[in-house]
Amino acid sequence: MTTTTEYRVTGMSCGHCESAVRAEVSEIAGVTGVEVSAATGLLSVTSDAPLDDAAVLAAVDEAGYEAARG
Amino acid sequence: MTTTTEYRVTGMSCGHCESAVRAEVSEIAGVTGVEVSAATGLLSVTSDAPLDDAAVLAAVDEAGYEAARG
């Protein structure tokens, strides 16, 4: 079953920032898709099982930004 | 003899942008140092011979931004 979870990310300013977030979040086990927009701050993560929010928040932190469940 | 040449770059918004410009400009033959700031848009290039402006402008363009001799 596919699950899509939304988060809000602050601090992204450009496409490089989007790429940094996408790269980190894509590494999480079970993640099958990542959409992220610096313009809106929205991060949408598709996974084949319910996501571990903490893992997503940690991945965004690793990329250098802050996120909250949207 | 060391030469430092100043340019103004538009469009950089974050540290990733600075890194992209720095990486491209650093590849130019003779370049010994690059300082770049997204906040001010200033790019300062140090070289061991007078710089070819066209090469610097092309490197910045390659990184995805626009520059002019400052």
Layout of secondary structure:
2 copies of one chain form a homodimer.
Chain A: E1 3-10, H1 15-26, E2 31-36, E3 42-47, H2 53-63, E4 66-69
Helix pairs in contact in A: 1-2
Protein described:
The structure is a homodimer of 70-residue chains. By secondary structure, chain A is an alpha+beta fold. Chain A has a single domain (3-69), classed as Alpha-Beta Plaits. In chain A, 33% of the residues lie in helices and 34% in strands. The first copy, chain A, is built from two helices and four strands; from the N terminus they run βαββαβ. In chain A, strands 2-3-1-4 form a four-stranded antiparallel β-sheet, covered by helices on one side. In chain A, strand 2 (31-36) and strand 3 form a beta hairpin. In chain A, helix 1 (15-26) crosses helix 2 (53-63). Chain A is globular and about 35 Å long. The mean pLDDT of chain A is 95. The A-B interface holds A 13-14, 16-17, 19-20 and B 13-14, 16-17, 19-20.
Nutshell version of this structure?
The structure is a homodimer of 70-residue chains. Chain A is α+β, with helices and mostly antiparallel strands.
Keyphrases for this structure?
homodimer; 70 residues; alpha+beta; Alpha-Beta Plaits; globular; metal ion binding (chains A, B)
